[in-house]
């Protein structure tokens, strides 16, 4: 289905109403097609060289889910990806999900309805494949010889306390939007379309972005109260993206299908905010290596000033502690490794001790997780003073295929190239 | 502290930055006072005849929490309410929490920081007192003789499946805002201020409003995909509010302190959306009694047309089913009872069966829960066909004291009148 030919949620609202009088006596009603100018205003194209939702300026809200594929038939997996592709095209345009055929009162509606009347809201839907899709159990879909060498379950890091019910998955779907109702609606409808072929494994709501992926955005704050991701990769620097985010054609000879894609590392990081809140501001700033108010490195300057790790205080000690987060995570301490971060704050109620179950849902896109994420996380989990105040409780890694052209389905190059 | 004399979060951002150079060498820094025009634009007054957050046009996001009071000393409970009042005044003005004294690096910051730079965002903070505050265990605070006769734990309703970890509480705090970061920040800081006197009992994040409380708002949709609360009470109709929401001075002779307040009923309603989504549109509409697209009653008309329960279809049956939700909840079937609804959609991940743990966090303000809520809920839980698709998993009732004047603390009339 081409752009702009579907049923816009705003149009549906007005025109379906005209069918209501008939609805009471059981007549089916047909919705008109979309020519709504609103729809285009805050819609990102689903098609392109790369999937949307990676370098797209980070939207404010997230709903993230992973799925276990339950069918054993490769053809049914492909059919699922085709259904998901069609629906994702519609959803990102702000249309009702349309699986073909007229809407009648005698059948379930194709679309679950809670986004009727809402604009596209900057929705992006980004798909990724977990390592288990390729080989667990064994080679169920004939994909093992195409598994990227780098797509391996992340190793156990010191202090990990992973909940298997919040980890892994055969497929992940990241829905980002500026309206959470639109993001939740997207995941729910994709889950509905998966019925019989895949089942929801876990889901996480991110209520506020903690990263900027564009120079047009201000740096937001995480639940430690500090600006997060000041040094993030930005969409405007194509050379950085080529070097650090996009898989290049020659990166993995047996996984050419992934060229133009990326790897997504997802980590649910619980923050112990009650003890953090009882830590002095000076200690917090030393642990981070930046001041809280503006996010400037403790060596001086403003937010975007490069930290000077050699700058000494009057007491002869470095102004930026050698075990601070900004030091340990800095490219200069990680062989030049950088990440495209796209994380969100979460708040999932509280635990049995009355502490808020809140923290950072860390999402990062990298070209090479073995070089860009694993060494840094090993270093952080061993040495970062912040580890006293956080715990990784969920984990996943996914190969994110490149974008598609109209007529293709997500992941088609994995199955057919 | 009077309005506009505190430290605005936007001012803090700019001016604290000027103190950063000194921060590295351990000097304390002082923040300037607020004269930020932004602050007033989307701020609701904390003071007034009634608490804000009841008839205030429903903001988009919610964070709701209840607390168990852990101190046994009445004076410490009063001191907590005083701290909460001061902080709520500051937070709703978009200021940093300020507990007095200079901010130094050698002590924890008074404010947790994650809302620095954010405007007031329409934040309202609304406090209520649960029945246990007055007598459990026994008369711990000398309040039993002031417990409102109507403030009683809700009875068990058919099909209730309440989780005690998501029910009850001595005090509730409802934080509503148009930015969830601002709502979460408010609850977190009030929880921090409670340390040693009260402990968080449970918390719920509502990602999208499901009610309008003003004629200026469009009716939103719940996760069944239908418009919710079309017939809600609205702020613009003062006579309705007097009759159905605000406790009048003569309502309860021993609880004069509650005059101008209200009762809050909170119910966490899990929706089983997977089976709902497999139900035909016609069946859904019959269960609700309205059409999905526009929200018009099945007897015809548009959203705000009164349902006509006597209108018959060609088959001789009522167009609106006698067991439909709109019928069972209609004032004509409930001795004229009406509610001020203020609910939110929630999505708390998933359960162990891979179903989304999502639904409606129902909040309603009433003058008399025994007359306005309990009979209706008994009727709904026995007869409403929707009950097949939902389950009440959390519950609380709270007496919401009236608004206060500057210089008063929340609930003062309970303790001192």
Question: Would you give an account of this structure?
Answer:
Two copies of one chain form a homodimer. In chain A, the strands form two sheets. In chain A, strands 5, 6, 7, 8, 9 and 10 form a six-stranded antiparallel sheet that branches. Chain A has a four-stranded antiparallel sheet with strand order 2-3-1-4, covered by helices on one side. By secondary structure, chain A is an alpha+beta fold. Chain A has helices at 9-18, 20-23, 37-41, 74-92, 132-135, 180-193, 238-244, 273-277, 281-288, 325-328, 369-372, 374-383, 412-416; strands at residues 61-69, 124-129, 171-177, 198-206, 208-209, 262-271, 340-341, 344-350, 356-366, 390-400. Chain A has 13 helices and ten strands. Helices cover 24% and strands 18% of the residues of chain A. Chain A has one domain (47-96, 108-416). Mean pLDDT of chain A is 91; it is low at 15-36. In chain A, a hairpin with a 5-residue loop joins strand 8 (344-350) and strand 9. The relative contact order of chain A is 0.18. At the A-B interface, helix 1, helix 2, strand 1, helix 6 and strand 4 of A face helix 1, helix 2, strand 1, helix 6 and strand 4 of B.
